[in-house]
Specification:
The structure is a single chain. The protein has 393 residues and is α/β, with parallel strands linked by helices. The protein folds into 2 domains: 10-50 and 89-203, Rossmann fold; 56-87 and 208-391, Rossmann fold (3-Layer(aba) Sandwich). Helix content is 42%, strand content 18%. It has helices at 24-39, 41-55, 65-71, 89-102, 116-128, 138-143, 145-153, 168-181, 199-207, 209-222, 238-244, 273-276, 314-321, 332-346, 352-358, 384-391, and strands at residues 10-11, 14-15, 61-63, 74-79, 107-112, 131-137, 157-161, 186-188, 229-233, 254-262, 278-282, 285-289, 325-331, 371-376. A hairpin with a 2-residue loop joins strand 1 (10-11) and strand 2. The longest helix is centred in the N-terminal third of the chain and has 16 residues, at 24-39. The structure holds pyridoxal-5'-phosphate.
């Protein structure tokens, strides 16, 4: 069984490129070139140089002593929160901006929900000197004012999506419309391991630096490259894909994917895609998708904007179907409690998305000698208002 993408762009039953004919040339150009470009030594050199000196990699693999004592197991945190801009998303946008330049694109578009991917995209566009247009739902623009200001300050144009629920899904539709209208000069930077092939694979490869580092870092401290478990929260699946990547075909490394249960998996206010989803097509890929009986996409809900997505990347749908990864759903309340706990046990305020991954220790028990690596996908600065409102700080 392979957990990587096959030649046709599928992970088992999931993936592919279900796109309007008008987009075919863009996606095909990327498909034909992405592996070739990524293998060029110039590209690798520039990518690695920027990851080191601009993003701040390698990020530490930190042994969380007090957290480990509390749960009686060995917990390591892979500190993506220390990346420039505060989360793992920059690993992907750095890779994609270099890809866009190699493909001679001069104009970058992106979609964003909470604004984290928008900020990461605006950042690399400033770095590369390319025009940047970020589509964002009108409602999200109101909710995420600081990130909107950041994008503008970085020189990006933020265009409101005014249709539908005026959130992420609608912003994505606008971005796709833009791409159809500008097929020659524009590259669309997708922010997670979602979208038509080759995006999920390309994003996973750019994020795979996370597990590449984990291997040698763990070898240094534990004398072995493989942990017993890797835990990551899953929105679209990019931080999880990066944390799992070099371990996917090592069955002794158990993978845990944590989804947002919102107010409870079966309350109708949730984003637990794998449990609630059925096979469907969203944003150009066949995957598990929350939908009504007649196939209309259901509005997801989570307290964390980054996990509030009705689908999941095709790699993760496959990991779920094959049971290669164990999927756990965590509620808003459990995540918020875990976020506060990490802050007070380790002095690290995590993003609310990341706090979901930290919440599994209440229910799931590990052995004292188990080595558990958690993808600490982002820092909590952006979520301070959410924490303030929730805990009445
Ligand atoms: C966006 C985001 C996520 C969710 O996205 P994935 O593609 O599933 O990784 C998780 N954590 C943080 C900090 C984020 O910003």
């Amino acid at each position: 069984m392979s957990y990587h993408v096959n030649e046709k762009g599928y992970y088992g039953n999931f993936g592919g490129a279900f796109i309007p004919e008008m987009l075919y040339p863009n996606v095909e150009e990327l498909r034909q070139n992405y592996l070739k470009v990524m293998a060029e030594s110039d590209f690798k050199k520039e990518f690695n140089h920027l990851l080191k000196d601009y993003v701040g990699r390698p990020t530490p693999l930190y042994f969380a002593k007090r957290l480990s004592e509390k749960y009686n197991t060995k917990i390591y945190l892979k500190r993506e929160d220390l990346c420039h801009t505060g989360a793992h998303k920059i690993n992907n946008t750095i890779g994609q901006i270099l890809m866009a330049k190699r493909l001679k694109k001069t104009r970058i578009i992106a979609e964003t929900g909470a604004g984290q991917h928008g900020v990461a995209t605006a950042t690399v566009c400033a770095l590369a000197g390319l025009e940047c247009i970020v589509y964002m739902g009108e409602i999200d623009i109101e909710r995420q004012a600081p990130n909107v200001a950041r994008m503008k300050m970085l020189g990006a144009e933020v265009r409101p999506a005014l249709s539908g629920s005026r959130t992420l899904k609608d912003a994505t539709n606008e971005a796709i419309r833009d791409w159809i209208n500008n097929p020659v000069d524009t590259h669309y930077i997708i922010g997670s391991a979602v979208g038509p092939h080759p995006y999920p694979d390309m994003v996973a490869r750019f994020q795979s630096v996370v597990s590449e580092e984990t291997k040698w870092q763990l070898k240094e401290v534990e004398g072995r490259e493989n942990p017993d478990y890797i835990v990551a929260c899953v929105g679209g699946g990019s931080n999880a894909a990066g944390a799992y990547y070099h371990y996917l075909n090592d069955p002794d490394v158990k993978l845990i994917a944590v989804e947002a249960a919102g107010k409870g998996v079966h309350t109708g206010e949730s984003a637990a895609t794998s449990v609630l989803g059925k096979q469907g097509i969203i944003h150009g890929s066949k995957t598990l998708l929350m939908q009504t009986n007649d196939g209309q996409i259901t509005e997801p809900y989570s307290i964390s904007a980054g996990l509030d997505y009705p689908g999941v990347g095709p790699m993760h749908a496959h990991l779920y179907e094959t049971k290669r990864a164990e999927f756990i759903a965590v509620t808003d309340d459990e995540a918020m409690t875990a976020g506060l706990e990490l802050s007070q046990l380790e002095g690290i305020i995590p993003a609310v998305e990341t706090a979901h991954a930290l919440a599994i220790f209440e229910d799931k028990k590990f052995k004292p000698e188990d080595v558990v690596v958690i993808s600490l996908s982002g820092r909590g600065d952006k979520d301070l208002n959410t924490y303030i409102d929730y805990f009445k700080l």
